[in-house]
Amino acid sequence: MSDRFVVPPSVHALPVEGAPELFAVRRIYCVGRNYIDHIREMKEADERDPPFFFQKPTDALVQNGATVAYPMDTQDFQFEIELVVALGGGGRRIPVQAAKATIFGYAVGLDMTRRDRQREARDRALAWEMGKSFDQSAPCSALVPVSSIGHPHSGAITLSVNGQERQRGDLSQLIWGVPEIISKLSQQYELKPGDLIYTGTPAGVGAVVPGDRLVGEIDGVGQLAITIGPEEK
C-alpha cells in the first residue's frame, strides 16, 4: 500500500481549566431522556423507562467560542444543553458506589440535533444517528477537574439564544445521577480514560438559525458559547 494512504490518527482534545495539558477524547456517549420535563415535552417515552445511550463521533467536538455551520439535511436544527462528564478511569460493570472514582472532571456541552431526522428515525424504528451523530454536533467547554469543583449534584443548568433564556433546569432533576449513568453504561461498554458522557437535557429545546448566538451555563461548572453560521457549501 502506498504511504500516502497511511496517515497518523487525529487526536481530538479539550482544554483543562488551570492546566497546560489537553484532555484527549476517546469516545462520546450521550444519554437519552434523563429529565422528566424533557420526556413530557417530547411526548415519546414512558417516564419510567431507563435512559438509553447513543454515540457521537469524536470529531464532532466543537471548542468553546466557535462558529458551528448550519448542518446539511435538516430544516429543524435544535439545541440541548447538558452536563458533560469526562472519565479519567474506566472498567466494565462498575458498581454505582465506585463510579465517582472514575471521573476526571466536568464540562458544559450541547447535544446539537437534527430534530426532523431524529423524528423520522423514531417513526421508522431506526437508530438515532442520522439526527444526532453529524459534523460539529458536540460543542463542549473546557473541562473543570474534580479536584477543583468536586462532584456537582445540584445547580442551575440554562441556555439562552440571542440573550433570551430558552432552557432552565437543575442538575438535581436528573432521573439517573452521574454514578448511576456510569455504572449502567459500563454494563454495555468497557469505559476507558478519555470517554465523555453527555448526561441529558432539561425541557425547552428548540430550533436555531444562522446568526443565532447560544450561551449555555451550569452553576459551578462553567459556560459554553457558540454562534450558528451558514451552511457550508
From TrEMBL:
Protein name per Swiss-Prot or TrEMBL: FAA hydrolase family protein
Keyword Metal-binding: yes
Organism: Pseudolabrys taiwanensis
PANTHER family named in the record: ACYLPYRUVASE (PTHR11820), FLUTATHIONE S-TRANSFERASE (PTHR11820:SF90)
Pfam families: FAA_hydrolase
Domain Fumarylacetoacetase-like C-terminal: 28-228
Gene Ontology terms, MF aspect: acetylpyruvate hydrolase activity; metal ion binding
Keywords carried by this UniProt record: Hydrolase, Metal-binding
